[in-house]
Automatic annotation (TrEMBL), chain A:
Protein name: (Fe-S)-binding protein
GO CC annotations on file: cytosol
Tree of life domain: Bacteria
Species assigned in the record: Streptacidiphilus pinicola
Coiled-coil residue spans: none
Domain Cysteine-rich: residue ranges: 3-83, 138-223
Pfam families: CCG
Biological classification of the source: Bacteria, Bacillati, Actinomycetota, Actinomycetes, Kitasatosporales
One GO MF term attached to the UniProt entry: oxidoreductase activity
Automatic annotation (TrEMBL), chain B:
GO terms under biological process: lactate metabolic process
Tree of life domain: Bacteria
Protein name: Iron-sulfur cluster-binding protein
Domain LUD as annotated: residue spans: 73-298
Annotated InterPro entries: 4Fe4S_Fe-S-bd, 4Fe4S_Fe_S_CS, FTHF_cligase-like_sf, Helical_ferredxn, LUD_dom, LutB/LldF, LutB_C, NagB/RpiA_transferase-like
Keyword field: 4Fe-4S, Electron transport, Iron, Iron-sulfur, Metal-binding, Repeat, Transport
C-alpha cells in the first residue's frame, strides 16, 4: 500500500503541527507515508472566490504529484471536499468550454484516491482506537465540509471517544458553521465574526479546554478569535487543536501546547 | 427601512448594521431556530423523504426541459376553461397588464394574496402610481405594509418584528388604511390576530378585484394552486368578481400526479406542517361560483435567461418554501433586508443575481454572502445545490471590472503554488521574520481579518522544512495494520 500525505498549503506554511502529527500517527499505526515535495495547494481559495481557471494548473499538479499512490491522505476536510466535489466540476466545465477531456481525466485520476484523515483511519485501516492519550476535556466542531460534503458522520467522534484520558463534551449547535468560509471571512467580516463568536460561546459553555476540529482553516479563524478574547480573560483559556494532534499524542510523547 | 430596494448598499455594509442590532438578532435567532427544529421533526416523520426530494427535483427538471410545451398546454387549458392568459417579458410589462386590467373594471382597490412574484415586479408601487391601492391580506404582509417596511423572509415577511413592535404598528397605522385597531390593543397573539381579522374583513367584503400569485399551475387542466395558512387567500381567490394571478413561468407542473409530490414537500419544508391548512385550486371560471373574470399573467422577468445557464438553471426548481433561510447562519445574523430584494437568504443570493444581473453593488455582492457551509442544500426539498450556484456566480462577478487587485493576488498565489521551490523559500523568509509580524493590520483584507481575530503566529519552520530536516523513516517498515 503506497500512501502519500497531502499536507495542504495552510498546514504546510502556517500550521505544520497537524501535518507532522498526521505523519507520526500514521507511522505509529504502521503506515509508511511519503510527502511528495512537488505538492502545494488544491486550489480551493481560487475556486471558491470565483477564479476557476486559476485552479486548473493545480488540478493537473495534484494528479501528477500523487500519481501511483494507492491513497492520498489529508488532514483537512475542506481540501478533501474541494478535490472530491469540485475537481470533477472543473473537468466538466473545461469540457463544456470545448477544451477536451484532459482536465476531466486528471480530476478523475486523483479524485477517488484522496481521503480525509478520519476516512483513511476508519475505512482503510479499520481502526477507531489509535492508541492515543490526551487527558483533557475536549469538544468537537465538525466543520461543514467534513460534515455535509464528505459525510464524515461518526468517524471523528468515534476516534475521539477511544482516546485514553479524553473527556468528550457535546458541543451545542455543533452543526452550525463557524463563519470562516475562506475569503468570506474577509469579504463579510462582520457576519463571519458574529458566527465565530457564537461558535466560541457554545464551545466555552461546555467547560472544555480544547476545541477540536479536523479542518485547520476553520481553526485558524477560531484560534485567532480565541487569542484575541483570551488576552484579558480570567477563566481558563480555551484553545483550538487539530484532531490529528490529539490522535498523535501518547503517554510517552504527550501533546504540548506550544 | 422605507419600502424600496433601490440604491441598497452591498451586502457586507447592510449586514454590518444588522449584526450589531441585538433585538433583531434575538428575534431572528429565536424564529429561525424554532422553525428549523420543527421542520427537522416534520421531515423526519417520512421514511421516503429522500425519494420524494429526488422526485421533486426530477419532475421540475423534466418540466423545465420542456417548459415551452407545458406553458402552451397550460395556456390552451386556461383559455378553454374561460380564463385569459397574458405573457409578460419583464416587470414593466406585467405591471402594465395588471394596471390595465384593474382600470378596465373601474375599480381603484384590489385585495392581495401574499405573492413573491408581485413583490419581485414591484406591483403595489406600480399600481399606486396609477391611483390603485393594493391591500395586502396576509398577516405578516399586512404588518410590513402598515409599517412602510420591506419583507425580510419569504414565508414570514415580518420575521424581524416581535409582538410588541407589531402591536405598536397596528395601533398607530391601521386607521390610515381602514378600520382602526381596537382600543387598548395588547400584544397577545390572539388580540393581534383579531385586530387584523376585523381590519381585513372590511376589505374582503368590499373588494371587486383580487390579485394573487400561485404555487403551482397544472398544464394538463389549466388549474392554479395556492397553498396558505390563514384563509385570507381563500377569501381573495373566491370573493372578488375579477381575479388576476401573476405567476412565474417556472411554476408550471405537467400533471395532477406531479402535484402530489409537491403537496408533501412544500408544507413540511415551509411551515413544518404535514399539510397546509388551506389549498385553493381553480380552473378558469365557473358559472355562479367564484370570480367571473380570471386573468393569468405569465411572468418571465429573467427566467428564460436563467434557464439558459446550465449550472444556474437549477434555481428555477425552487418552490419558495424558505427552509434554506431558516437554516442559514448568514441569514440569521444579517437579516433579510441585507439581500436587497424580496428573495432573501440563500435562495435570494443565487436567484436575484440571475434575475437582475450582477451590475449593482448589492447584486454583485450576493454570491459572496455565504460561507458555503451547505446547510441550505441539505434541507432544500428540490435539492438545489446552492453552494455550487454561488461559486458559479462568483466566477461571473470576478470577471467583471473592479477585481484587478483580487485577481492579481489569486494569480500570484497560483504562481507560487506552481513553483514549490519558490514557495519553500517564501515560507523560510516568513518564518525567519516571524517575530516581527504584527497581530493586527491596518488595511484591506488583513484589516477585515484582524479587526476581530489575531493573525496566526507563523511557525519556526514549515512542514516542508520539517520533513526535509527532521523526518526520519521509521526503522523497519512494519506490515500495515488491518
Ligand atoms: S431554494 Fe430550496 S430550500 Fe430555499 S426556498 Fe427554494 S425550495 Fe425552499
Amino acid at each position: 500500500m503506497r500512501v502519500a500525505l497531502f499536507a495542504t498549503c495552510v498546514n504546510d506554511a502556517v500550521l505544520p503541527r497537524a501535518a507532522i502529527a498526521t505523519v507520526r500517527l500514521l507511522e505509529r499505526l504502521g503506515v509508511r507515508v511519503d510527502f511528495p515535495e512537488q505538492q502545494s495547494c488544491c486550489g480551493q481559495p481560487q475556486f471558491n472566490t470565483g477564479y476557476r481557471h486559476l485552479t486548473e494548473p493545480l488540478v493537473r499538479r495534484m494528479e501528477r504529484v500523487f500519481d501511483g499512490y494507492d491513497h492520498v491522505v489529508t488532514p483537512s476536510g475542506s481540501c478533501a471536499a474541494m478535490v472530491r466535489d469540485n475537481y470533477p466540476r472543473i473537468g466538466a466545465k473545461a469540457q463544456a468550454e470545448g477544451r477536451g477531456d484532459e482536465l476531466a481525466r486528471a480530476a478523475q485520476a486523483v479524485t477517488p484516491r484522496l481521503l480525509e484523515l478520519t476516512e483513511f483511519l476508519v475505512d482503510v485501516l479499520g481502526v477507531t482506537d489509535v492508541g492515543a492519550y490526551f487527558p483533557h476535556k475536549v469538544t468537537y466542531h465538525p466543520s461543514c465540509h467534513g460534515l455535509r460534503m464528505l459525510g464524515l458522520g461518526t468517524r471523528p467522534l468515534g476516534l475521539l471517544r477511544a482516546v485514553k484520558g479524553l473527556e468528550l463534551a457535546e458541543l451545542p449547535g455543533a452543526e452550525e458553521c463557524c463563519g470562516f468560509g475562506g475569503t468570506f471571512a474577509v469579504k463579510n467580516p462582520d457576519v463571519s465574526a458574529a458566527m465565530g463568536a457564537d461558535k466560541i460561546a457554545n464551545a466555552r459553555s461546555t467547560g472544555a479546554e480544547v476545541l477540536c476540529g479536523a479542518d485547520n482553516s476553520c481553526l485558524l479563524h477560531l484560534q485567532g478569535m480565541l487569542r484575541r478574547q483570551n488576552s484579558g480573560r480570567q477563566d481558563a483559556p480555551l484553545r483550538a487543536v487539530h484532531l490529528a494532534e490529539i490522535l498523535a499524542a501518547t503517554e510517552t510523547t504527550p501533546w504540548s501546547p506550544a | 427601512m422605507s419600502g424600496t430596494y433601490l440604491g441598497m448598499p452591498a451586502f457586507p455594509q447592510a449586514a454590518k448594521a444588522a449584526t450589531r442590532d441585538t433585538r433583531l438578532r434575538a428575534n431572528l435567532r429565536h424564529a429561525t431556530h424554532t422553525i428549523r427544529d420543527k421542520r427537522a421533526r416534520a421531515v423526519g416523520e417520512l421514511d421516503d423523504w429522500a425519494v420524494l426530494r429526488e422526485a421533486g427535483k426530477r419532475i421540475k427538471d423534466r418540466t423545465l426541459r420542456h417548459l415551452d410545451t407545458y406553458l402552451l398546454q397550460l395556456e390552451e387549458h386556461v383559455t378553454a376553461a374561460g380564463g385569459t392568459v397574458h405573457w409578460a417579458a419583464d416587470a414593466a410589462e406585467a405591471n402594465r397588464i395588471v394596471a390595465d386590467l384593474v382600470q378596465a373594471t373601474g375599480e381603484t382597490e384590489v385585495v392581495k394574496v401574499k405573492s413573491m412574484a408581485t413583490q419581485e415586479i414591484g406591483l403595489n408601487e406600480a399600481l399606486a402610481a396609477e391611483g390603485i391601492t393594493a391591500y395586502e391580506t396576509d398577516l405578516a404582509e399586512l404588518i410590513v405594509q402598515l409599517g412602510d417596511d420591506l419583507p425580510s423572509h419569504i414565508l414570514v415577511p415580518a420575521i424581524h418584528r416581535n409582538r410588541g413592535e407589531i402591536r405598536d404598528i397596528f395601533a398607530e397605522k391601521m386607521a390610515r388604511w381602514g378600520r382602526p385597531a381596537p382600543e387598548g390593543l395588547t400584544d397577545r397573539p390572539a388580540d393581534l390576530a383579531e385586530a387584523a381579522r376585523l381590519h381585513l374583513r372590511e376589505k374582503f367584503l368590499r373588494a371587486k378585484v383580487g390579485v394573487s400569485g400561485a404555487n403551482f399551475m397544472i398544464a394538463e387542466t389549466g388549474t392554479l394552486v395556492v397553498v396558505e395558512s390563514e384563509g385570507n387567500g381563500r377569501m381573495c381567490l373566491t370573493l372578488p368578481e375579477t381575479l388576476i394571478s401573476v405567476v412565474g413561468i417556472e411554476k408550471v407542473l405537467p400533471t395532477w400526479q406531479d402535484l402530489e409530490v409537491f403537496l408533501q414537500l412544500l408544507p413540511r419544508s415551509s411551515t413544518a406542517e404535514r399539510m397546509n391548512p388551506y389549498t385553493t385550486m381553480w380552473t378558469g371560471t365557473s358559472e355562479g361560483d367564484g370570480p367571473r373574470d380570471f386573468h393569468l399573467v405569465l411572468l418571465d422577468n429573467g427566467r428564460t435567461d436563467t434557464l439558459a445557464d446550465e449550472v444556474g438553471r437549477q434555481v428555477l426548481r425552487c418552490i419558495r418554501c424558505s427552509a434554506c433561510l431558516n437554516v442559514c447562519p448568514v441569514y440569521e445574523r444579517a437579516g433579510g433586508h441585507a439581500y436587497g430584494s424580496p428573495y432573501p437568504g440563500p435562495i435570494g443570493a443565487v436567484l436575484t443575481p440571475q434575475l437582475r444581473g450582477t451590475t449593482s453593488a448589492v447584486d454583485a455582492s450576493l454570491p459572496f454572502a455565504s460561507s458555503l457551509c451547505g446547510a441550505c442544500y441539505e434541507v432544500c426539498p428540490v435539492a438545489i445545490d446552492i453552494p455550487e450556484v454561488l461559486v458559479h456566480l462568483r466566477e461571473q462577478v470576478a470577471g467583471q471590472p473592479g477585481h484587478r487587485a483580487e485577481r492579481a493576488a489569486m494569480q500570484a498565489a497560483t504562481w507560487l503554488f506552481e513553483h514549490p521551490a519558490a514557495l519553500a523559500a517564501a515560507e523560510r523568509a516568513a518564518s525567519a521574520t516571524r517575530a516581527l509580524h504584527p497581530r493586527r493590520l491596518p488595511l484591506g483584507p488583513a484589516k477585515a481579518w484582524t479587526e476581530t481575530r489575531d493573525l496566526p503566529q507563523l511557525p519556526a519552520e514549515s512542514f516542508r522544512s520539517w520533513w526535509q530536516h527532521h523526518h526520519t523513516e521509521p526503522p523497519t517498515p512494519p506490515e500495515p495494520t488491518s
